[in-house]
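Morning!

This is the sequence you dropped in the shared folder:
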Amino acid sequence: MALAFCWADLLFELDRNGALTFASGATEAFVGRKPKDLPGTPLADLFAPEDGPLVNHFLKTVYARGRHDNEILRLRRLHGPNLPVSVAGYHLDGKFFIAMRMRAASLASASDHVVRDQKTGLVNHEAFSEAASQRIKQMQELGQKAEVSVVALAGLADLKTRLGAGAADQLMSSVGAALKANSVDGDTATQIDDDKFSLVHQATVDLASIEEQITLLAKRADPTGEGVTVEAASLDMAGADAINQEDLAKGLMYALSSFQKEAGAEFRLDKLSANIGTLVTKGVNEVNGFKRMVAEGKFYVALQPIIDIKTGDIHHYEALCRFEQGAPGESPYRYITFAEETGLIHDFDLAMAKKVIEWLSKMPRNNDKYRVAVNISGFSIGMPGYVEGLHKLLKANDWTKGKLMFEITESSRMSDLESANAFIQGLRKKGHHVCLDDFGAGAASFQYLSALEVDVVKIDGSAVKNAQKAPKGRAFLSALTELCSRLGVETIAEMVDSPESLAFVRDCRCDYVQGFLFGKPSANLADFTPLPHGNLFKKR
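The structure's back. Tokens below.
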């Protein structure tokens, strides 16, 4: 006990069922209860409920190996936020001894402020690559070997459908907890794609054990007992010790981006045999090239009009980017996707806002003819550097009130809707209208509409197209616009590319329209004067 307290703030003894038989230390300060009141309490009850799988895995590891150190868990407190602690466990002569202490500032604690996925609790790509590279280098300095592995869950999408939203979220939380439990510092794991994950772990961790854990979680959750097929493989880390930390992070980002592009059944884990040095070279070139292109402003603004469906007047323009190094007419999708997958999108979003403000500054300011909506990725909203940079930019350009609007894209990337709404209200208070893009593309759209106070929603083009095909489509779209109207939110119908589409969304009472029927995005406003097919409004 004396040796344990040289390290720990709390000391517990457990029975084989995981219940406390003895407690000592600063329990009142940590969990609000005296030591004498704790015997009989299950150890898991002392921790945050979402850490339950981590606690169970910790106890199993202690039992199997005899000891386990440096597990990061969160004590549940009666008042205030949960308290992260570092936990060590020992199994001796049929008894369990658990020691824990306040977690010192470390790599893991630094990640407490990064953007996380609300359902899995895992960190985002950029935070993962930075934390992973740092931890790998630290372990190398200590003579320890780290590995980076990818875990693929084939059939996860079908399982989520069978489970429904609530049970699916619970499963994802358990999967996230299992990955964190096996990762270095308990917090070097991320979700690459809908069914693929990655983690940094010690070389001694058995990948087969991770596959078994997640397979069991999925089978228990699945009412049919089918579950998912889990496969894991590791990157070849040979030569990583010769790579500096910054380049290693870029290489990991590039690797995650590459794995994300692999589609479903075509995903081949044998591709992970590629040496990390090769991936680093490609990653450094790609990331540096994109950053250089953004820093040097090698892109320009193309505008597409959003038109008042009643009058045919242009209400405002959406600002879309075009890259100078791309082929004529080439879609910027490849570049934007790369930025999103590698965690660089917030840098680009800020650069795009600056570019649009620069464009607006050249236009007359004495009328509302020139109003432009600039896109913000849902990912960027959670990045403190982006939020601070944007507000600083708006403060320096106060004249953009009423002229600069914002359109939130990739809303599925918003992990904290309360914080997202606070960000939106900050823009609206400054006099900027906010539009929520991709509305109607999924069931979560209604959750977003309930949680986020916006001025406009843009009905996703796929929803508009599908509504025209389905027998009940007109009723669906009309009900959607009616709901928005009652909430005081205006609607924009996207992908209106034919007179028939215009007539359809007009009958469904959308407020505005956007689509190729009125011209493709262009840097020249003369392309919209006169407005292509403007006679469709005059006839009306």
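Headline: Confidence is low (pLDDT under 50) at residues 104-113, 263-267.

More detail when I'm at my desk.
O.
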